[in-house]
């Protein structure tokens, strides 16, 4: 069995219209993958930056996977939320990216999007805030049924992930 | 047998400098956190730097040039060591208050790495506490700075990021490859694949 260690950080986010952001994240894998240790989902702190344009979370990730096959290589998915001064949360973006398949340290930028909804929903969001959310969060990382959605670009999530693979070359797998 | 399943990670480096545009007279403490399988074989787990003023030029850097030298051993990369840094400086009353917490993993690949760590301070959880901390001149701090290296329980904290700290690392590893761990992409020329799969193929052809 091959083993994969994912060691790194969700560094932060940039390019969102407001700061004071936090992020819910999770890692989705195929059926042949097993988590041996570490957290596979979590939520970052809320960062309200003093004088720069990006929010920083420095959220550590350290997961140990074991796998019998390469299918269903892990994906990390995000929901970026904005928290206003009254503590109300508003969805700012969905995004996912595959974990890199080659060992070493990777700096990753993951672009995000959010659903726009109908014209009237956009008008009401402009005045009242809030906005449509996905009923089924699986859509963040799956390609099925996406064609019904209308979305708009939001900011980017920045990651620094290190990968350590074990025993992959024993099975003749080149990564 | 037990000794053969151990790998070593030697880390040398320095806490180079920091940027805190609003403050002066900053010192920095550091500590390493690691998982249960890890042990420190040599070097100091914690340290504290000198107090420095910012540079006179427009960069306004706080330079510490503070050495880090530590060697870890482990049987399992899970719980990979993290560096936790926390910077302090005097407020208007002269008491030391925290100016930033930051964390990063020790790089998992051998070689030289330079990292710019964002520094953040926790915020008061309520308006009342904000008021009392303003009157008493004490701002919220973590009881144990090592919580910034944990992924759990962060959803309840609100922070404000306000500066950066630059650290450089030189990492050397021993016996990672021997235990089957790949930390760098396999070299096409020297791939282990050629030795194993290729040889057996050549043997069948012969």
From TrEMBL, chain A:
GO terms for biological process: cilium assembly. GO terms for cellular component: MKS complex. It is found in: Cytoplasm, Cytoskeleton, Cilium basal body. InterPro entries: C2_B9-type_dom. Coiled coil: none annotated. Transmembrane segments: none annotated. Keywords: Cell projection, Cilium biogenesis/degradation, Cytoplasm, Cytoskeleton. Belongs to the B9D family. PANTHER family: B9 DOMAIN-CONTAINING, B9 DOMAIN-CONTAINING PROTEIN 2. This is B9 domain-containing protein 2. The lineage of its organism: Eukaryota, Metazoa, Spiralia, Lophotrochozoa, Mollusca.
From TrEMBL, chain B:
Its main location: cytoplasm. Transmembrane segments: none annotated. InterPro entries: C2_B9-type_dom. GO terms for biological process: cilium assembly. Keywords: Cell projection, Cilium biogenesis/degradation, Cytoplasm, Cytoskeleton. Pfam families: B9-C2. It is found in: Cytoplasm, Cytoskeleton, Cilium basal body. PANTHER family: B9 DOMAIN-CONTAINING, B9 DOMAIN-CONTAINING PROTEIN 1. Belongs to the B9D family. This is B9 domain-containing protein 1.
């Amino acid at each position: 069995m091959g083993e994969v260690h994912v060691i790194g950080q969700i560094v932060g986010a940039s390019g969102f219209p407001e700061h004071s952001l936090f992020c819910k994240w999770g890692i989705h894998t195929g059926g042949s993958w097993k988590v041996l240790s570490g957290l596979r989902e979590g939520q970052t702190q809320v960062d309200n930056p003093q004088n720069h344009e990006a929010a920083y979370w420095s959220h550590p990730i350290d997961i140990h996977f074991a796998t019998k096959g390469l299918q269903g290589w892990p994906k990390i998915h995000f929901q970026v939320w904005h928290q206003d001064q009254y503590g109300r949360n508003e969805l700012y973006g969905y995004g996912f990216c595959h974990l890199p398949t080659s060992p070493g340290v990777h700096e990753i930028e993951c672009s995000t999007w959010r659903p726009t909804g109908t014209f009237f929903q956009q008008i009401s969001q402009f005045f009242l805030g809030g906005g449509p959310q996905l009923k089924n969060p699986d859509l963040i990382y799956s390609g099925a049924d996406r064609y019904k959605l209308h979305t708009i670009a939001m900011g980017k999530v920045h990651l620094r992930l290190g990968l350590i693979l074990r025993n992959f070359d024993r099975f003749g797998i080149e990564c | 047998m037990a000794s053969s399943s151990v790998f070593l990670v030697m880390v040398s480096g320095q806490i180079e400098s920091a940027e805190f545009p609003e403050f002066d007279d900053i010192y920095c403490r550091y500590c390493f956190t690691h998982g249960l399988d890890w042990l420190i074989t040599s070097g100091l787990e914690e340290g504290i730097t000198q107090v420095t003023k910012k540079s006179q030029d427009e960069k306004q850097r706080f330079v510490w040039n503070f050495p880090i030298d530590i060697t870890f051993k482990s049987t399992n990369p899970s719980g990979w060591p993290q560096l936790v840094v926390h910077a302090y400086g005097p407020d208007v009353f002269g008491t030391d208050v925290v100016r930033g917490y930051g964390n990063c993993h020790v790089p998992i690949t051998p070689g030289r790495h330079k990292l710019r760590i964002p520094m953040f301070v926790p915020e008061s959880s309520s308006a009342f506490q904000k008021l009392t901390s303003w009157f008493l001149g004490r701002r919220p701090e973590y009881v144990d700075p090592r919580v910034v290296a944990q992924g759990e329980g962060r959803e309840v904290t609100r922070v404000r990021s306000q500066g950066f700290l630059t650290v450089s690392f030189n990492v050397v590893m021993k016996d990672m490859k021997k235990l089957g761990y790949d930390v760098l992409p396999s070299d096409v020329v020297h791939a282990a694949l050629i030795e194993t799969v290729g040889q057996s193929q050549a043997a069948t052809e012969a």
